């Protein structure tokens, strides 16, 4: 086995410390990474003697480099965990006859229009009303209430606009500065947002967790923080797990780690939002590992290598009694290390990480965190109290600095 | 704008970061280090560029970038691959024909024999027993050397055909035997621009009986200015014959009175810290010059630090290191800028076969070449690294 690892995350997140997620000797690995965003964090040449560092922002260049690596080294598998590389990895697999998800299998997890079309075709009914953006911007839409205008290919809620009336759709399209054919519109769903993170093998969900978002991801531009808290066993978790399984069956995934998002309306209805065939970002894998002992990222790597999942044996997918959550405070809210300030005042902080901004400007997406904090509590109510304490300390610090 | 650099050391990459260009750093497998890559400026590729097929595939990748302006290698092994990239990409750098002729000492001797016989010596391919015997018949002392060798590795004195036949056949396959030259051996460092060759330094060598270089002094204490000028002119003629019109070169010549003979040449800067001697005496950053010329970046000269300078390399008899002199001696008139023994007590020391077997180095500057040469000799006499039990 000679895998190509295309890394766009913090390196140790993708491959584990010193590449421990990869069951291959260092000399059999080929790493393609970048300098930005921690792409070389923890890098040692002993772990990856064959390394290429390239500019991933240049259109077509990444594909050319990956193609060169595969063909010049006779590589056998591709590991690509970032949303942006999913289609590229699938097309390269097909071009070189490598195992793993094909483009046809990957598209329903990338194209937000296609995924809804496929789910409707599979008989899944809990899809919001939606439409492709027609050539002529519609004066009316077949639903009531606000409308979401979003990229079919976006990630991290970064290319999403919400308008109150159809008259605002044209402005939203202009604001997104995108080819209308790459956009979709759908009915805005009011409700609490959840995400289900799964390990799928042989077409079955072998592990699943459910988290509640602390904020709707789409509000990253106006909020100070984002995050998730794991749900313990209960009716909400069971209901969402059931929908998650239906969605994944409907889209036909055979093996992989998935991250699906749903709304739960005040009326108790579940509505599908979107799904990706990759581990969730923003610390989700941390809290799942702490709670269940299941490493979603390691599983994603193994499944992309055609290996069985790495799950506790015998399977025990019950969360521990503690509640874990991740809180991400966005870049630029406060550009200073808050570690000792918070950990000395708030109980249950498992870890804190400060990530200074690499680019000037503003927060770019829903997990563009400047501070990542894992919080633990013996119950959900105590978790909420601790979270509230962190947020009030953040507020006071922001006031102090302003 | 991007410059491709093959096989550069950490020091050379740090130097290249002074250039106003992005870098495409190309390393052989197992040697890559991501530590030198500047965020959002540089790229790093691990390529077995000694393999023609791998190099051709990599050239195609680079061609697709469309922003490569030049290719340079700072190591001997990368010179030919760099030239192949230059040809395939159509960018600035040394021509392949120039590099092949300078890397293959047999080819260089043949070119000199036809175009500048006064600059060369009789030679014979080491596999041609009759030609070798004829050579040794008229030249009682001769040198066997690998045609593509560097760092004195594999060079040995031969005085009869049996000496040559004792050399392993595989080594002889890529070897030549040439008449032994006497005189003062110097290195001439040049920068060529549009066919005009400028001599930046002439450096005299101190060589052991095994042909391992243990010292360099600039300017050469044993040569007159007129002899240095003749050496420079001879090198210019050689570079014209080889077709080297641009870039740096490091050419070894033997000067004996008015006679100048070419030993070998490389289209790269000289090793052994010669760049530091040039910087000390001329104020020119020779490493930066060697890296920047393909992209038209030549550094400004700084004020010189001294009139003369020397490098001295520590060597020791075979054995186990018993002591190391950690501080330079106090010597009138000279300043030690570097004192870096690389051996430690208890280290094993093998036979001195090539530059790689040396045990560290020192650099000194002084008021004139004679003072520096005397200091060099003194340092060599100190046995900075001593061994026992050889």
Q: Helices, strands, pairings?
A:
The complex is a heterodimer of chains A (402) and B (390).
Chain A: E1 3-6, H1 11-15, E2 30-33, E3 51-53, H2 61-73, E4 77-80, H3 86-96, H4 103-106, H5 112-121, E5 130-132, E6 147-151, E7 160-163, H6 169-176, E8 183-187, E9 192-201, E10 204-213, E11 225-230, H7 235-251, E12 256-264, E13 270-276, H8 284-292, H9 296-304, E14 323-330, H10 339-343, E15 349-354, E16 369-377, H11 380-401
Parallel strand pairs in A: 1-2, 1-4, 2-3
Antiparallel strand pairs in A: 5-8, 6-7, 6-8, 9-10, 9-12, 10-11, 11-14, 12-13, 14-16, 15-16
Chain B: E1 2-6, H1 10-16, E2 22-27, E3 43-46, H2 52-65, E4 68-73, H3 76-89, H4 96-103, H5 105-115, E5 123-125, H6 129-138, E6 142-146, E7 156-158, H7 161-165, H8 169-173, E8 175-179, E9 184-193, E10 196-207, E11 213-218, H9 225-242, E12 247-256, E13 259-266, H10 274-282, H11 286-292, E14 308-313, E15 319-324, E16 335-341, E17 348-349, E18 360-366, H12 369-381, E19 385-388
Parallel strand pairs in B: 1-2, 1-4, 2-3
Antiparallel strand pairs in B: 5-8, 6-7, 6-8, 9-10, 9-12, 10-11, 11-14, 12-13, 14-18, 15-17, 15-19, 16-18
Helix pairs in contact in B: 2-3, 3-4, 4-5
